[in-house]
């Protein structure tokens, strides 16, 4: 009885996390269109969430001594890298398309496993890669010479590459007697990401007046500060935290299925709130991408216990990959059902 209730609660939390993550791009895009630079929106998101998570970071301050490489890698890739490239991409292409491109990350992880680690991959995993790439071809409409901005697609692909780092990091140390607490890793990832983004984004040059004005979501006018509050509190702090808690109550495979709903939620919200309509071939292609991504990530072989996955460091996903291979098993053991995410 208690186990069943725990799974039900975990499923509810995982769905809430996917919904919260899926709404980040929909809330960020109006702020970008209102005049904020994508990097400034990312900085506001990460810095705001880092402030909220400061008490958690203090509680897990021993991680600075135990896992410095993991924290730095997570902050650079899973937080700063993924989100900066993702927000830059949605300033040029639809939110749903950007997120679907990012779901190539599990397929890219297979390339890491096969060609960097030189470990064999299963036929099922290879089939998942083929599905994901074929579905992406439908999403971006390759038959029409790419129906979307090429730079926007490359930025989304860069976000996927950063998410690969998240997946690799999440597998590091998962089999240790005292693995790093995922919530603590998230907190320090946000802090380190905020420091890096402060140097890169230079927020002192931001047009702060935009936050006191209004932004447009399709035909509706919304206070800019309300959108920012959603991005910081719901799409970041709440999303990461519920993702971590849910993966502890569910199996990694179930958490992976629910995590794939993030792209669906983002696409639907962008359609309803931003008027970003996708055609039937793109919707079908998006479904194929998600199926292929799930097959690829759930079929990724685990690293041998004797050796580290990534040279020297040790997805996050804990926020992500987030995005989170998660390897899904890595994500479950290590850092969030979540992603790095968007």
**How large is the share of residues in beta strands?**
under 5%
Mean pLDDT: 77
Q: DSSP helix count?
A: 15
For the sheet with most strands, the description reads: 2 strands, antiparallel
Largest beta sheet: strand ordering: 1-2
- Would you report the number of β strands? 2
What's the shape? globular
What structural category characterises the helix and strand content?
Answer: mainly alpha
Distance between the termini: 35 Å
What's the alpha carbon Rg, rounded to whole Å?
18 Å
Question: Describe it for me?
Answer:
The protein has 342 residues and is mainly α. The chain is built from 15 helices and 2 strands. It has a two-stranded antiparallel ribbon. Strand 1 and strand 2 form a beta hairpin. The radius of gyration is 18 Å and the shape is globular. About 10% of the residues have low confidence.
List keywords for this structure.
342 residues; mainly alpha; two-stranded antiparallel ribbon; 2% strand
Topology, please?
Elements: H1 2-22, H2 24-33, H3 38-52, H4 54-59, H5 63-66, H6 68-90, H7 95-102, H8 105-116, H9 123-139, H10 150-171, H11 182-201, E1 214-217, E2 220-223, H12 224-249, H13 252-274, H14 280-298, H15 328-333
Antiparallel strand pairs: 1-2
Helix pairs in contact: 1-12, 1-13, 2-12, 2-13, 3-6, 3-11, 3-12, 6-10, 6-11, 7-10, 7-13, 8-9, 8-10, 8-14, 9-14, 13-14
Short description:
By secondary structure, the chain is mostly helical. The chain is built from 15 helices and two strands.
């Amino acid at each position: 009885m208690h186990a069943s209730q725990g799974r039900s609660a975990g499923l509810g939390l995982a769905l809430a996390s996917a919904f919260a993550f899926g709404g980040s791009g929909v809330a960020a895009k109006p702020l970008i269109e209102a005049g904020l630079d994508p990097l400034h929106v990312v900085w506001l998101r990460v810095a705001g969430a880092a402030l909220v998570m400061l008490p958690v970071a203090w509680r897990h301050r021993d991680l600075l001594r135990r896992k410095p490489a993991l924290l730095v890698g997570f902050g650079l890739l899973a937080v700063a890298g993924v989100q900066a490239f993702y927000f830059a991409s949605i300033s040029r292409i639809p939110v749903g398309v950007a997120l679907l491109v990012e779901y190539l990350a599990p397929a890219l992880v297979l390339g890491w496993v096969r060609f960097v680690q030189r470990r064999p991959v299963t036929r099922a995993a290879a089939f998942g890669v083929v599905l994901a790439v074929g579905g992406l071809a439908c999403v971006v409409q390759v038959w029409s010479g790419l129906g979307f901005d090429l730079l926007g697609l490359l930025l989304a692909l860069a976000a996927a590459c950063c998410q690969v780092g998240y997946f690799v990091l999440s597998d590091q140390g998962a089999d240790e007697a005292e693995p790093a607490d995922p919530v603590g890793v998230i907190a320090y990832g946000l802090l380190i990401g905020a420091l890096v983004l402060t140097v890169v984004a230079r927020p002192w040059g931001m047009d702060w007046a935009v936050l006191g004005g209004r932004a447009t979501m399709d035909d509706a006018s919304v206070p800019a500060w309300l959108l920012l509050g959603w991005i910081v509190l719901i799409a970041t702090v709440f999303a990461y935290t519920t993702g971590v808690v849910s993966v502890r109550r569910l199996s990694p495979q179930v958490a992976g299925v629910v995590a794939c709903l993030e792209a669906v939620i983002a696409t639907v919200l962008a359609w309803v709130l931003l008027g970003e309509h996708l055609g039937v071939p793109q919707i079908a292609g998006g479904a194929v991408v998600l199926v292929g991504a799930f097959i690829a990530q759930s079929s990724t072989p685990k690293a041998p216990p004797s050796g580290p996955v990534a040279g020297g460091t040790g997805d996050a996903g804990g926020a992500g990959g987030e995005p989170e291979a998660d390897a899904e098993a890595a994500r479950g053991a290590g850092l969030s059902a979540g992603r790095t995410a968007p």
